[in-house]
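Form 7-S
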Amino acid sequence: MQFEAKITVMPIAEILDPQGKAVALGLANLGIANVEDVRVGKHIVLHLSADSQAIAEAAVETACKKLLANLIMEDYTYTVQEVVTT
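Output:
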């Protein structure tokens, strides 16, 4: 079966996000002053083959923990959906 995983990796809320601060400053310089906070993260889409939803989710979990997210500084969330081809 084919699956698509959508993964979001974001800095932990308690950690300073210098990229977010730079974007917030840039927005203010553009006259967009009503933005109160900006957090910059990563959005990753994986296409994978697996025998079941559970196996696909386990693979995504492993990828997040071991490669895609720095667990000291980042949190992650993901969804995994089967891709139906006709």
